[in-house]
Amino acid sequence: MTRIRVTKRFHFEMAHALHEYDGLCRNIHGHSYNLEITIAGNVFRSPGHPKDGMVMDFHELKMLVKTHVTEKLDHALMVNSLINPKHLEALATSTSRIIVVDFQPTTENILQFIADTLKPLLPEGITLFSIRLHETVTSFAEWFASDNP
Question: Which of 11, 29, 75, 87 is catalytic?
Answer without folding.
Answer: 75
